[in-house]
Structure formats: C-alpha cells, structure tokens
C-alpha cells in the first residue's frame, strides 16, 4: 500500500477530518491533502509525529509492511551506526553510496553523526533501505529485526554475486582474501560490473558459493546451496 493510501485510511479510522489532522500536526489542511493525493511526502520529523499519533511504525506508514506495530525508536545514533555497518558490509565507500542516493559525500558523512545530526529525506531513506535490502524501521532503530524486503530475482552477474555474498554474511575484503585476489577493489569491481572475472576466478567463486558457473553468469542451473566454505 502507498503512503498516500495508508495515511488516508489511518485518518479515517481515527475519525479525523483533514483539518483535524492538520491542527494536531500544526500544519495546513492543504499539506495533509497533498500527502493523501500523493503529491508530496513529509520529512522525517513529521513522519515521526504521524507514526506516534496513529501508533504505528514508520515502515507500516510508508507501506513497506502490512504488519501493524507501534513506533518506538531513538533514530539519531542508531541510524548512524546502522548505515555505517550496512555500508561496510555491502563494500561501498561513502563516496560511492553518496552518489547512489544523489547527495554529496560531505552531506552523507553527516548523516546521524555529531557533525550535524542530519537525517535523510524520506526519499533517500527509502533508497538506502532498498540498497541495503532492509526496512526503513530497521535503519532508524524502530526494530532490531533485520527482515529482508522481498526483491525480484537478480538479473545480472554483479547482482547475483552481491546477493550471494550478503546472504552468506561475508564482506568483500573477506572473500577477496579467501580467493587470493590481489585486492578488495578487484572484487568490488566484479560487484559493480566494471570487470568480469577470468574463467579460473569465476570457477573459484562458483565453488565458494556452491552454485554453478551458469547460475553466476546467466541465472540458470543453480545448484543446491549450503553454507560456503
């Protein structure tokens, strides 16, 4: 369900008119109307107010989940820790991730830190959650349950390689070391699609993840998976 539909349904459920909700949030009737029409979305601070008012999680409010739970979180410090851990786990530099979500490296570095306590816009929060395959609620510290968001089957070699690594719980550096690659950057380039491994390395990757080379390259003939060596 979309945010616009969710907020409309929650407002009706509470018996509020558009003006009632606007008054409770200290904003205008037109602002709430834009939310419900899908013209605009609130910033995080307003989203928190809505979550508390309706006693639901931000992930529920945004339509990420249909499981209705209450909102309880302290996002400032949890958020900064989580995006750092997730970024390192995914093998991205701050510069790379900043580019992916459309901000400067300087602004990205300030997310949830003591430099400025900057929290991303809702659009960028959802983009980060999508990149890391977690819920917005997990990013913000509403929940410690890291539920993976359902995603389509990876359609390319870089996507399949990254998914296999993340599911196995390895960092890029760890796999680079196990496969005796010259550097983490070499492996990173595989996941980015900059380069493709030579046949020998491709076979090592397939053996490590216990899948077929055909699966890595084409997404077919995946072997029964067990824990990597």
Automatic annotation (TrEMBL):
Residues 7-61, 83-139, 161-216 form the HTH cro/C1-type domain. Gene3D superfamilies: lambda repressor-like DNA-binding domains. Keywords: DNA-binding. GO terms for molecular function: DNA binding. InterPro entries: Cro/C1-type_HTH, Lambda_DNA-bd_dom_sf. It holds the Pfam family HTH_3. It comes from the Bacteria. This is Transcriptional regulator Cro/CI family. It comes from Lactococcus lactis subsp. lactis (Streptococcus lactis).
């Amino acid at each position: 369900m979309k945010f616009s539909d969710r907020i409309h349904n929650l407002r009706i459920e509470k018996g509020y008119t558009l003006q009632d909700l606007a008054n409770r949030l200290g904003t205008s009737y037109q602002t709430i109307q834009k939310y419900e029409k899908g013209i605009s979305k609130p910033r995080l601070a307003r989203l928190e107010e809505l979550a508390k008012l309706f006693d639901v999680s931000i992930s529920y409010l945004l339509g990420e989940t249909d499981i209705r739970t209450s909102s309880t979180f302290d996002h400032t410090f949890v958020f900064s820790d989580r995006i750092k851990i997730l970024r390192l786990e995914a093998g991205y530099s701050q510069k790379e991730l900043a580019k992916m979500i459309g901000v400067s490296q300087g602004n990205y570095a300030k997310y949830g830190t003591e430099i400025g306590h900057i929290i991303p816009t809702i659009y960028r929060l959802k983009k980060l959650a999508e990149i890391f395959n977690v819920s917005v609620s997990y990013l913000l510290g509403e929940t410690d349950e890291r539920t993976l968001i359902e995603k389509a089957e990876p359609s390319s070699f870089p996507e399949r390689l990254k998914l296999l690594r993340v599911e196995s719980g390895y960092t890029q550096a760890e796999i680079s070391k196990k496969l005796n690659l010259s550097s983490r950057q070499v492996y990173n380039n595989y996941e980015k699609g900059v380069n493709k491994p030579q046949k020998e390395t491709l076979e090592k990757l397939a053996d490590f993840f216990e899948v077929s080379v055909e699966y890595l390259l084409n997404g077919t003939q995946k072997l029964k998976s067990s824990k990597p060596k």
